[in-house]
User: Fold these one by one.
Assistant:
Number 1:
Amino acid sequence: MADTTWRTRASGTRPVRTAAGATVLAAVVLAAVLVPWLAPVDDQAVDLGAKLLPPTWAHPFGTDEVGRDLLLRTAHGLRVSLLAGVVAALAATVVGTTVGGLAGALGGWTDRLVMRGVDLFSSVPHLLFGIVVVALLRPGTGPVIASVALTHWVSTARIVRAELLSLRTRPYVDAAISGGATRLRVAVRHLLPAVLPQAGLAAVLMVPHAIWHESALSFLGLGLPAHAASLGTMVNSARGSLLAGQWWPTLFPGLFIIVPTLAVAALAAAWRERLDPRGRPEPAL
Amino acid sequence: MLELRDITAGYEPGRPVLRDVSLTVGDGEAVGLLGPSGCGKSTLARVAALLHRPTAGTVLLDGEPAHGWRHRAPRGQRTAVGVVFQQPRQSADPRLTLHDVIAEPLRATGRRAEAPARVAGLAATTGLTDDLLTRRPHQVSDGQLQRACLARALALRPRLLICDEMTAMLDASTTAALVGVLEAYRAETGAAVLAVSHDPVLLNRWCDRVVRWDDITRGTTASDRPHPL
């Protein structure tokens, strides 16, 4: 049947990039799940006799300034980062889709009012606003997720609204109204299915960004409490030893901030090319 | 059936596309509206189908003045009028199969149970095979898709059909087939038709009465002004 022809116009390297992104991401997720499970050692265990050891077979990533195993702590931090990234991106997408959906579907004064609110939101630097949100709450994963979600729904709201404005004037929406459909029916049957792929792509594109924000907030000492393993807090506490020539406490957590975000970005870019084959291929960060 | 009185309508404030247009379609009558491209025929068709709010004037359906437009129009008034648009590609949701496209009005008005039988009947009259019904709009030709759009317009047994350049994109044999389907429906139900087109030959053969755009409008319209492009 002809229903796959338009999908076969893949640009040359897309399958490779998709496979590479998926493999790396799967490996990282597996590591985050399996390492703490296979090595049920307390990642908080301090061993001052083994502090700042360079990578060896016993400690493949070395140890930090109080002798904690960096492989174990990186895996724990990775868990937190991936979880926070995905949940925050999903929450931001739900908020953004709802706001943009209301503005786009209702139009008129609702639209104007909501979009001025969106303008107001985007006029505040979002890291700053995120810092205010976490500062108001206790340190922990929940507030970090809330902070990232509350500052990142704006672009999704804009995308969803713009898409809806264009969809609303299609003759098939006219035909549905003429056929007796209610507003809800038009929204659920015709508008939502057209908007969801865009919103889903926006959510995936937001995951790397959310991971970075989680790390940034933790690095600034505002995210997770200092003792909890988070990639951001680990990079922060490693700053002193980096100046003393100990590179491993910075390198490994830093690497695991970058690698999963690049993998997700590669997947998102491939998805975007599929949605819009004529768009320019570009890194999706 | 349909009476348009002194309709003025447009898309931007202060720039009407059509001004003071009056037109009447009697019960069971087929009226052809002939006008050049860009004169505002389609806008008038959308006003008549309660899909676009005019800035001035009255629309009467069965003597009943229309107050709401689009979703605000009472469902009974909306569904009394069936609409077929010019471009079938734009008028069918790309995510639905042709079967779902045709069944949609029945499902939307709570007559889900009637849908399978009604769709089968409409597919037979409009010449759509079972195989075509399972396809999506991008998998069929313009003519096949327009057949489905006509079937959708007939699904709720409207008493007035508004065909806005229904056959402009189609070849002669499909045009003849679609007009034939409509005529059979009229003969069966006594429905009225407002056919909008720029093709005098088609309208003269199809309609009881053909009106020219210039005869039903007073004042300047979009076609009198220099084109914005």
Number 2:
Amino acid sequence: MTTHSTHVHHLSKEAGRIYVWQVPVRLTHWVNFFTIIVLSLTGYYIANPYVQVSAREAYGPYFMGHVRFVHFMAAYIFVASLLLRTYWAFWGGNQWASWRALVPFFTPEGRGIAKEAFQYYMFIQREPPTVLGHNALAGFTYGIIVFYYFIQVFTGFALLGMADPGGLWWNLTSWVFPLISSQYIRLLHHIVMWLLCAFAIHHVYSAFLVDAEEANGLMSSIFSGWKFRVDPHKIEEHKERSAKAKATKTEPLKEK
Amino acid sequence: MPFETGNLKEALAQRGVSRRDFLKFCSAMAVTLALPPQFAPRVAQALEKAPRLPVVWLEYQDCAGNTEGLLRASKPTVAELVLDVLSLNYHETIMAAAGHQAEAALQETVTKQKGKYIAVVEGSIPTKDGGVYCTIGGRTALDLVQEIGGNAAAIIAVGTCAAYGGLPMASPNPTGAGGVGTVVKGVPILNLPGCPMNVQNLTATIVHYLTFETWPATDQFGRPLFAYGSRIHDDCERRAHFDAGQFVEEWGDEGHRKGWCLYKMGCKGPETFHNCPIVRYNEGTSWPVGAGHGCAGCSEPSFWDTMTPFYRRLPKIDLLGVEATAEQLGVGIVATVTGAFATHGVISAIRSKIQPIDRHEADLEEHLP
């Protein structure tokens, strides 16, 4: 593994394969992926129990009970994943796993990349900014998502805590109820689920788009951890040649 | 009122309440206060020796529903006698005296028994425009409650109006109404919300004071934990149907006739702390969910604004004057985002045809002969 890494590192000076997403980053990504799907589906049922169960006496069927159990278990796994990812963002991870990616606007470089990314999405600029981790705009979006996660975890445990006044979750969260009625805490919990659904659509679309346009192996990187980087010199050379070709009215090399 | 002297024991004897009934009452009180059964004799002892505790009952912006609750007993119960004996130097609705005489009796209590009497307050206190929206004997409720409540040993705010403002405080709150706690400071205030409060809880609160000479422990909203320490949903007799997934879908359907869970009909049991399922109303005969109607969340602060619509799970969201449910809003957001990115995808596809990316060209060059 060491020799392999050295080899890659050597290559990565200019171009080639780079190991960007470490194991905890990918692991938490997929744990979040699965738990959020489970939490959304079970949460939707809990909010609006649309399934008709048997009309037998209630000592037999326990459908809502099971759905709630799955929801709570998925919630605890989700929180464990968030804790691991938080540790990795502050202490364990590499530069691309850092929490700094979530607040890109504090550095001039971040602001520049965000502007480029925005112009790319708005069809003002042709090429997306070349970055290895998240581009600044994506990082900022993930910052918002982390905030949504926080709201979901907090409101979720606040609602769970109501079943056990004086218990752990109640003691940690019940201060919120004099400020915001539990009904609005519940409403928030529901609305943020829809916002996360909307994010998922944006996230998958943008990943596909950038994967195709930037040709950096973005989609496979969340499975493998590896991304590709194109040699910037090569692009410059190509641009120069194209310009020359245009000026001399000869066909560029690419044309047959 | 009926007994000028003496204590509860004598009063009970005069009324012909048997020893057995009295002890049954003491056991019931111990249970209501969530005390172990061993405490029943201690409650009985305390009540027998209890001195006459002066109580004034003040009514402001209300419907007299809590007074109704107090008087609702169909037979003279021990509880009623406890309240009678201890109480009521002044009660606007049920006292025989009127006018200056009545006000004089009240003033006498306030001055002569200062710091020793209990003020029971029913109804919200209007504060807007100097509190002119509720006056008694030419004085505003605000003025009265600050003087009478401020000189009391403790205030018991009965009903949601007195505790948190209740219906008069509901948006747009034209009279600037609020609960007693918002206008009186420096005196212990016990909130017994509910619409109406349950007399059993009022009696138990006073019994707690007589037995232990302290007020019961309260939650963050000033409600005694013995009565408001767990959710209606968690004590509900229909809870098994909730866990099973058996819900009333519309009024009068099969599930409704079978007594299934009223969750989908907007029952606010899951957000309301009260002991209704255990104590019930009208001497334990029934309560809203028992009678087939969802809980309205009446013992929660601002319930009229936060627990409505009563027949829906969640509040509606106001979007520039158009009301939407959380689901409508959420599906709308997801649909909008999907549409926006679908459009972006089509434009991106066209762009990549018209104007390919330089770096792709550069990569392609490598592979060309």
